[in-house]
């Protein structure tokens, strides 16, 4: 569906029987009006757009009603906004760093927040949920959205069951006591290795790789066999759906309990999260 004019936006909103979304968590970061353009299927997007550390955020209801004949409502007992179309069910929980679209978990780098009683989600997440391909052209200072499908491919078709199974397990085994960002970082290390020519090319083979010695202790001490908790499964789904803290991280360790310091002595430090230090 192509972008409508602002007057058509207002008319479409008026035609929908939707509930007002109560004020949710305010953004923890500074927001400002976006200084870049957005073009949707060849038409300038004139909806409300904020910039959070150069990341575009759009008003959830306004974008949903632009993209489709969407119904938007608020579930008070869940503290979450919902969007439904013929092909999409989207859930945006307040005070969280993800949205759920057709069962898929999509990362929101600076969270789901409200400003002036309007809920905002990242443009990238909104685009993915509604089936748009997104391209930023630096020379134009413009993000281009092109509709490729009616909505995000459902979770049962998108996630590889084996990858999700083993990624959840290694995240839980290595980082169950770590902050949530630390769980994402462990997932990033595994998937970065899958993409690297230096390591095997599947999640399972990366985790159980022992060509140059055991890579992950839980594979030999039994911790890998534990059932992952909900946060570990969520972190795995977010990583598989594109959540990236850093594309270069290939190693991590807890220096306090590590049996070898080869990593910090030979690799470049990237970041520290909780008890783990991550290296490229």
Helix/strand-derived category reads alpha+beta
Indicate the overall shape. Answer: elongated
Report how far apart the termini are: 42 Å
Residue-averaged pLDDT: 90
- Which H/E pattern describes the elements? HEEEEEHEEEEEEEHEEHHHHHHEHEE
Number of strands: 17
Most strands sheet: 5 strands, antiparallel
**C-alpha Rg (nearest Å):** 21 Å
Measured by DSSP, the beta-strand proportion falls in: 25-35%
Walk across the major sheet and give the strand order: 1-4-5-12-11
Tally the helices: what do you get? 10
Outline the low-pLDDT stretches. 1-24
Helix content class: 25-40%
Task: Write the topology of this structure.
Elements (H helix, E strand, L loop, with lengths): L5 H10 L15 E3 L3 E4 L2 E2 L4 E4 L2 E5 H8 L3 E5 L4 E5 L4 E5 L4 E4 L2 E4 L5 E3 L2 E5 H7 L2 E6 L4 E6 L7 H4 L2 H15 L4 H16 L7 H5 L10 H4 L8 H11 L10 E3 L8 H5 L2 E5 L2 E4 L1
Parallel strand pairs: 2-14
Antiparallel strand pairs: 1-4, 2-3, 4-5, 5-12, 6-7, 7-8, 8-9, 9-10, 11-12, 13-14, 15-17, 16-17
């Amino acid at each position: 569906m192509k972008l409508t004019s602002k007057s058509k936006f207002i008319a479409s909103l008026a035609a929908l029987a939707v509930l007002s979304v109560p004020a949710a968590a305010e953004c923890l970061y500074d927001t400002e009006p976006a200084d870049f353009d957005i073009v949707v299927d060849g038409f300038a997007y004139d909806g409300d757009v904020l910039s959070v550390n150069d990341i575009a955020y759009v008003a959830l209801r306004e974008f949903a009603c632009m993209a489709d004949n969407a119904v938007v409502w608020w579930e008070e007992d869940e503290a979450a906004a919902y969007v439904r179309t013929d092909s999409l069910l989207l859930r945006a929980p307040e005070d969280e760093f993800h949205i759920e679209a057709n069962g898929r978990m999509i990362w929101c780098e600076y969270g789901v927040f409200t400003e002036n009683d309007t809920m905002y989600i990242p443009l990238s997440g909104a685009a993915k949920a509604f089936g748009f391909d997104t391209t930023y052209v630096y020379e134009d200072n413009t993000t281009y959205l092109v509709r490729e499908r009616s909505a995000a491919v459902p979770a049962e078709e998108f996630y590889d069951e084996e990858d999700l199974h083993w990624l959840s397990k290694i995240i839980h085994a290595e980082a169950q006591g770590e902050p949530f960002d630390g769980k994402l970082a462990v997932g990033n290390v595994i998937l970065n290795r899958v993409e690297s020519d230096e390591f095997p090319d599947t999640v399972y083979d990366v985790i159980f790789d022992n060509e140059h010695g055991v890579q992950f202790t839980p594979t030999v001490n039994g911790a890998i066999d534990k059932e992952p908790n909900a946060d570990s499964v969520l972190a795995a789904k977010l990583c598989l759906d594109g959540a990236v803290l850093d594309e270069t991280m290939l190693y991590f360790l807890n220096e306090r309990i590590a049996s070898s310091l080869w990593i910090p002595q030979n690799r470049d430090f990237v970041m520290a999260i909780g008890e783990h230090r991550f290296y490229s």
